[in-house]
Amino acid sequence: MVVRRDSAVGERAPDGSSKTGKSAKKAVGAEGETSPAKKAAEKATKKVTKRAEKPAEKPAGKPAGKKAAPAAKKTAAAKKAAPSKTAATRNTPAKKTAPAGRTTSAGKAAVARKVKPADVVLPAEAAVEKAAPVKKIAVRPPGGESPTALVRRARRINRELAEVYPYAHPELDFENPFQLLVATVLSAQTTDLRVNQTTPALFARYPTPEDLAAANPEEVEEILRPCGFFRAKTRSVIGLSKSLVENFGGEVPGRLEDLVTLPGVGRKTAFVVLGNAYGHPGITVDTHFQRLVRRWQWTDETDPGKIEAAVGALFPKSEWTDLSHHVIWHGRRICHARKPACGACPIAPLCPAYGEGETDPEKAKKLLKYEKGGFPGQRLNPPRAYLDAGGKPAPPLGAA
User: Fold this and answer.
1) pLDDT at 329 (0 to 100)
2) Could you report the per-residue pLDDT of 20-37, keeping only the tens digit for each?
3) How would residue 38 be classed by pLDDT, with cut points 50, 70 and 90?
4) Domain containing 277 — which CATH number?
5) What's the average model confidence in pLDDT over 336-354?
6) Number of domains in the chain
7) Residue 268 catalytic?
8) Looking at the domain assignment, is residue 35 inside a domain?
9) Alpha-carbon span 344 to 346, nearest angstrom
10) Domain of 201?
C-alpha cells in the first residue's frame, strides 16, 4: 500500500481519513489561539464603550479614574478609529469632572492649547469664585497702640491741656447766636483776629437778620473786604440772613439738621454755634484740630467727618466742646504746623511726634504765640478769665 505525503494536506490513511501533519497542526494551533484573543478584545471593547458612555450620568464632582485613559487607548487601537478625534471625544467627560489636583492626558493637551469650552466651569474656578468674601480688617489705632491705651492717653492729653488753658474759649467776638453764626462763616480762609476787627462795623450797621437780609450787597462787600473772598462771603451772610427770616422767623435754629441748610454753613460752623451759643456738645474740626489729632496719632483719617467720629469715640460727649477749644488753642500757640515748639510743650511725654520741632527749651520759648509768648490775643473783647490769666485784648482794625 502506498501512502502519499503532502506537506500542505497531511497524511491520508487507507480508509480515507486524514492525518494532520506538523504544519497543519501549527496552523490549527494558531487559529485556536487567535479566536480567544478576539473574544477578549471584543469584551474589553464593550466594557470600555460602556464606561465611556456612563460618565455623563456620573456627578460632576467625582474625578475620572486613572484606568479610563488606558481603556480608551485600547478601544481606539481595537477599533482602529481616528486617534485624535476619538481620544478628544471620549475624554470630554473626564475633562468636565477633572478635579483641581489631577489632569488627564486630554486635559493636559487642552491646557497646553489654552482651549476651554465657554460653558464648562472647572471645579477649581468655582471654588475661587465662591471663596471671595470681602476681607474685614479690624480697625486699630495708629501706631499699634491698643484701643484702651489710646483712650487713656487721649484723655490724659485733654486733662493736661485743660490745666494749661483753663480760660480756653471761642476766639470770635459775639453777643448772640446770630453774631456768632455770621462771624464763623466769615472766619473761613482768614484769621479770627481779622474777623473780630471787621464784624464791629458790620453788626453796627446790620444788627439783625432782617437788616442784613435787606442790605445792599455792594455796601456789605465794602465792609467785608478786609476778610478776603468778600464777594462770596457777602452772598453767604445775606443768603443765610434771608433763610433765617423766611424759614426760622429770624432766629438761629438750635439743631444741626437745620443749621446745615443755611447758605455757607457746614458741620464745623454748626458745631461752633451749637456748642458756644446753645451749650450743645460738638467737635469743631478745623485745620488746627485735624493737624494735631493726626500728629498725636488719635486717628489717621483725613476726612473731617471721619475725624469727628473717630475722636468723638475717645471722649464723653459732654467734653466735646471744651476738647475742641483745648486742641485748637494748643495748635495756635505751641504746636505749630511748620515748626512746633516741642521743647516748650507741656504734653511732650505723651506726644508720639515729639522731636519734629525745636526741642531746645530756650529756642522753643521764642516760638510761642499770643498770651504764651506775651503777645495780644485775637479777641477785642476777651472774657475776664483770659485777662486775669495774663491775656491781652487784640487791637482794633487800623490800630498801630
Assistant:
1) 98
2) 444 434 433 444 444 555
3) low
4) 1.10.340.30
5) 97
6) 1
7) yes
8) no
9) 6
10) 157-333+369-388
Write the pLDDT tens digit of every residue in 150-203: 999 999 999 999 999 999 999 999 999 999 999 999 999 999 999 999 999 999
Report the candidate in 57, 115, 64 with the shortest Cα–Cα distance to residue 91: 64
| Residue 60, in any domain of the structure | no
More confident residue, 112 or 158: 158
Q: What is the pLDDT of residue 58?
A: 43
Asked if 205 and 223 count as a contact pair (C-beta separation under 8 A), the reply is yes
Please say if 15 is a catalytic residue: no
Distance from C-alpha of 5 to C-alpha of 20, rounded to nearest angstrom = 11
Catalytic option among 286, 365, 369, 392: 286
CA–CA distance, 209 with 238 (Å, rounded to integer): 8
Average pLDDT across the chain, whole number = 78
Chain centre to alpha carbon of residue 75: 59
Residue 241 near residue 213, CB atoms below 8 Å: yes
Report if pTM > 0.85.
Answer: no
User: What is residue 19's three-state secondary structure?
Assistant: strand
* Domain membership flag for residue 97: no
Given 233, 268, 322, 372, the catalytic residue: 268
Instruction: Write out the three cell numbers for 303.
Output: 476726612
- Residue from 333, 343, 323 nearest 376 by CA: 333
- Please enumerate in sequence order all residues whose Cβ is within 8 A of that of 17, keeping only pairs 6 or more positions apart, or say none: none
Looking from the CA of 50 toward its CB, the CA atoms found within 13 Å total 6
Q: Is residue 395 part of a domain?
A: no
Burial degree of 56 (CB within 10 A; 0-12, 13-18, 19+):
exposed
